[in-house]
Amino acid sequence: MFINKMRGVLVMGLAAAVVLTSCSKVKRDPGLEYAPQMYRPIAYNPDQKNSVFADGKTAQTPVEGTIPTNYEVFHYPHTPEGYEAAGLELKSPLAHTNENLEEGKRLFLNMCSHCHGKTGMADGNVVAKAGFPAPPAYNSALLKNLPEGKMFYSITYGKGAMGSHASQLSKEERWKIIQYVQYLQQQ
């Protein structure tokens, strides 16, 4: 009987110790950490050797086809005046070819159709199924004759509920999408 009482006291004492060590007056303190290296890993210095990668380098080269963060300088400010100036001055540097149009279609279907719809009628899945506000249709009076410079500006900076796509699409890819949008506007 004495042994059972001792076990009970020992179990209660252990439970109290666990509870007391796991609580803290500091709200962001996680208490006792079993494996602190999992919570606060030591980052590798980009210049040091790293056995995790086959080539032994910590700083890996970017994957082919990725866009560097400093990929372009856009000379039009993100203001209403910049939008108007881009509409007047910016022109596509790409030739209107079937290859560019097909690539523009592929990019449009991957990057734009979820909101704008496959034919630019503002009936994409985000609008139809998720209930987000519809963007204007490409054949609407608002967009039918929109200059390509304003389109490029809108894709670069974003417009209305649409965010910037400059980090996801290269300059050339944006112009190809614009060629396809102009094709949809004519349909």
Automatic annotation (TrEMBL):
Instruction: Could you list this entry's UniProt keywords, alphabetically sorted.
Output: Heme, Iron, Metal-binding
Q: Which InterPro entries match?
A: Cyt_c-like_dom, Cyt_c-like_dom_sf
Return the SUPFAM superfamilies for the record. Answer: Cytochrome c (SSF46626)
Answer whether the UniProt record assigns the keyword rRNA-binding to this protein: no
Q: Which domain of life is it from?
A: Bacteria
An MF annotation (GO) of this entry: heme binding
**Residue stretches making up the Cytochrome c domain:** 99-185
Pfam families in the record: Cytochrome_CBB3
According to the UniProt entry, the coiled-coil residues are none
**Name of this chain's protein:** Cytochrome C
Q: Which organism is it from?
A: Solitalea longa
